[in-house]
Structure formats: C-alpha cells, structure tokens
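Hello forum,

I keep getting stuck at the same step: I have a sequence, I want structure tokens, and every attempt I make locally crashes halfway through. Rather than fight my setup again tonight, could one of you with a working pipeline run this one for me? It's a single chain of 297 residues.
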Amino acid sequence: MYKSRKLAFFFMPAVVGITGVLTFTAAAQNLPAPMTTTTFGKNYHLGFERPEAWGLKYFASTTLLSGLQPPEPAEGYKVGSVSVGFEIGWLPTLDEGQRRVGFNGTALQDLNQSPPPFHLLGVTSHLLAFGLERPLVQRGQWTLSWRGYGQVGTIKGALTCPTAVLAFAPGSPGNPTSCVGKSGDVASLRYAGHEFQVAYKIRSMPKLVPHVAAGGNFIDGVFQTNAPVVKGLDRTRLWTRGGTFSATGGATYLVTSHAAITVDAFYSPLWVTRKPGAPRTNHGLFNVRALLSYTFR
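Reply #2:
Ran it on my machine without issues. Output:
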C-alpha cells in the first residue's frame, strides 16, 4: 500500500484544478553497461485486456482527477475565490499474480515500488493532471456538477529489470528477461475523461454533504523498455488505448466556513486476460482518498 499527494488549485464558479500528481516515485539510476552495445526492439500494439495493458491502465487509474472536490460555500461562489487542497490516498499492494504482467502474463514486474512524491526507491514521476468543473443544476439541497479532466506525463524506473532479479542467472526462472543490469524504463500515463457528480445537503446536519460520482475515461498508455539484457539494450515499445469506467462515493465535512475535509471511496473495473486462452476477469482498482481544502474568498 502507499500514499500519494496532490496539490490542487480550484477557481469558481468554473472550477479549474491544476494538479502536480506525484505517484509511485523515485530516481532511476544510471544503467550499467550491457554485455554488448547492440540496441534492439520493436513497436507493439497491445490489446486493452492484455496483462501489460492492464498494468498501464491500473496505474493511470490511480491518478485519475475524479471524485474529490471542495464543497460549495454556504453563501455561494464568489468571483476570484480560490481553494487550495492537499490530498492523500491509500492503494492496496499488488500480489504476485497481478504483478506478473510481462511477456503476456508470464514475467514478474516490480510494480510495488514506494510512491512518495519525492525521489526515492527507484522511480521518478513527471505527471501533470488538470481539470475543469462547474455546477449544472442546483435545486434546493441537490447539486448536479460536471467535471472534465486529463493528464500528461511519465514515470521512470527499474520495472523490467529491478535489482531483485540481478541475483539470478540470465534466463533462469528468477530472471526470465535475461537482465544483466538495472533498467530505466519509462511509462506514459495519459488520459482524458469526464464525470457527473450529485451532492446533497442534509438539513439536520448542514456541515455534512454526501456525494456520488460516475465517469468515463480514455486511457492512452505507453511503456518504453530501456533494459540491459544479454543480447544488448532492449528498447521495445508497447502501447495501448481504451476506455474505462470509474465511480466514487463519499462525503464532505465543513470544519469551518473556509475549511473542509472530504473522504471518497474510488472504484474502477479493469478487465484482463492473464494468459492466452484464460477467462476474462475483472481485477479492478479500489482505493480510498482524502482531501483537506481551504477556500480564500
């Protein structure tokens, strides 16, 4: 499991959120010299339910700019008001079967690296998420809002050839990709999406505002291998594209007229065929996110 942090800036009444999303991060190290200087690799398109594609859409989904938002002030939005938020999130650890995504589900990948938003433990992120949001309908205690969002950027780390496999002989079960040094792989986690959110103000508990949201997302993922192996430097490129669905539910508690705490549960079903001929299964993403926001107005 891990925690990730975001900084978000919201401008009302149309809410524009620009978020430096920092997820599963740390520094890629210099590649050791491979046994040969030969560079090889091809460009492959992956079906959206292949294991490698599942890994890309899983981690892109962890960064979706969905669900959490500052609540509407009691006196309404004012021109020039700004809300600043600090977000943390919990993500479950992937088991060995879920991490076995390489070579169409046969090779284990190091997908549980630590995600703090600093240079740490082998992975570095350069991700920017952005969004536009506004209320569509406001009737009494009910509010229907719409949000559009997207993300660009990459993460870099030793995913194909982590340090753990270098203790095993190239080509052995412990090192099936024949690694001879630590890799510097790069994954692009790009997406665009939108969602609708319904919020309800409880008359008897005016400080508590429950809400639910549902969204659709288009994910464009690329995995660029940069791995020193026995044959040389593997520069294979894998790419995939497809759509996902996501849903959130939670509540906001108004601590003061300016500060609020929001907690959401997030879920996105993610379909995958782990091995050729295996049944299609749903290995979805479930996590919990929390946002502390403060509005200046």
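The CA atoms of residues 49 and 272 lie 4 Å apart. If your local run keeps crashing, start a new thread with the error log.
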